[in-house]
Amino acid sequence: MHATALTIRPIALPVPFPLKTANVYLAGVGGTTILVDTGFYTPDAWECLQNEVASFTAVYGPLRTIILTHHHPDHVGMAGRLQERHRVPVLTSPGEARLVSQVWDRSAGRRGAEFFQTHGVPGPVIDTVTREHDTLCSALAPLPRVDPITVGVPLVLGGLEFAPVITPGHSPAHLCLWHSRSGTLLAGDHLLPHITPNIGWDPYSAPDPLHDFLAALAVVERLSARTAYPGHGLPIGAVDARIVELRAHHAERLRTIRALLDSGPLTGYEIAGRLFGTDLSPQETRFAVVEALAHLEYLRRRGEIAAGRRHRHVVYTSQGPMLSRTES
After folding, report:
1. What class is the 7-104+140-237 domain?
2. Which of 59, 73, 150, 245 has a 20 to 30 Å separation from 285 between CA atoms?
3. What is d(CA 50, CA 30) in angstroms, rounded to the nearest whole number?
4. 3-state secondary structure of 124
């Protein structure tokens, strides 16, 4: 096989989250196999992944490296177990490498509780979210030993060469892999085919994650990828058209939020309820709140809305005193 002929095997693994499955990818040329993302540990997912790795490496050579697109549990979930089993390095971007250990520490749940309380989330919901975080910390053990890649330098793994593309937004230092010879983008959760990636503002975010996401879409657009392999769902063929759809979605979401604030000051939790409804699981509530906050902060930073205090909570308003991120 020619060293530049890339073979990718998508594997949809079950996850105990609303999307039901998460994709991992085995990629290989003669003599080299890498695994991109690892899914979330359940006995069935572990057995399935081990079987897929065994059959793929029998053709393309042993597993050499695990790459993580980002630190979320449905992507990092089995990395530690796989690293112990196969004795291979686990790589990701420098920012995501820090987050693997930072976020999946039980103390992070307490910091998150304070953040959500500030933005109006009720105490019982916060308690459930905190317990869920502690449960995830246990499920992700053992965490892998993660090494950072060198940003801007081609990632050469045996016969495979990828350009790392940092695409913040869904996660602060989200990593995509670009194989230019085949026009293939391993996109993680930066691009999804049928839903929009959750863009959230939380204690671990950059100051303006929606701006970062939109800027990263432009970076990916310039690649002119033929195919993008997402973290959930089927491969995306019309990559540029999907990018246009994502931009339009966020533009519409921003218009909706501006209109909601015309009726008076609202917390991030109240905005989330108006956007997504209130009949949500704790995990869905968390996603809804951080998604609303990302859009609110995008508007605030551009002077289109303001933020202030109502009792102990941050509220956003069409008028009023400005509030810096450090005060929130």
Report:
1. alpha beta
2. 245
3. 20
4. helix
pLDDT tens-place string over residues 110-163: 888 999 999 999 999 999 999 999 999 999 999 999 999 999 999 998 778 999
Q: What is the distance in angstroms between the CA of the first residue and the CA of the last residue of the chain?
A: 56
- CA distance linking residue 105 with residue 111, whole number of Å: 11
Cβ distance 328 to 313 under 8 Å? no
Q: Which CATH class is domain 255-327?
A: mainly alpha
| DSSP-assigned letter for residue 236 | B
Q: Quick check: bond before 203 cis, omega within 30?
A: no
State the CB neighbour count (10 A cutoff) for residue 224: 10
Token readout for 54 is 């065994």
Please give the full DSSP string across 199-216, using - where no structure is assigned. Answer: ----TTS-S-HHHHHHHH
Rounded (10°) CA dihedral 54, 56, 60, 66: -80
Closest-CA residue to 197 (of 169, 174, 223): 169
Nearest in space to 217 (alpha carbons), one of 225, 154, 79, 118: 225
Q: Which two tokens stand for residue 306?
A: 């303001």
Q: What is the DSSP secondary structure assignment for residue 42, as one 8-state letter?
A: -
Domains of the chain by residue range: 7-104+140-237, 255-327
Task: Please work out, in degrees rounded to the nearest 5, the angle formed at the alpha carbon of residue 104 by the alpha carbons of 231 and 289.
Answer: 65
Report which secondary-structure segment, H or E, holds 133: helix 123-139
- The whole model's pTM is what? 0.94
| 39 vs 49: CA distance, rounded Å | 9
Name the amino acid, one letter, at 291. E
> Three-class SS string for 40-106?
CCCHHHHHHHHHHHHHHHHHHCCEEEEECCCCCHHHHCCHHHHHHHHCCCEEECHHHHHHHHHHCCH
Coil, strand, or helix at residue 306?
Answer: strand
Q: Which residues contact 48 (CB under 8 A, 6 or more apart)?
A: 11, 13
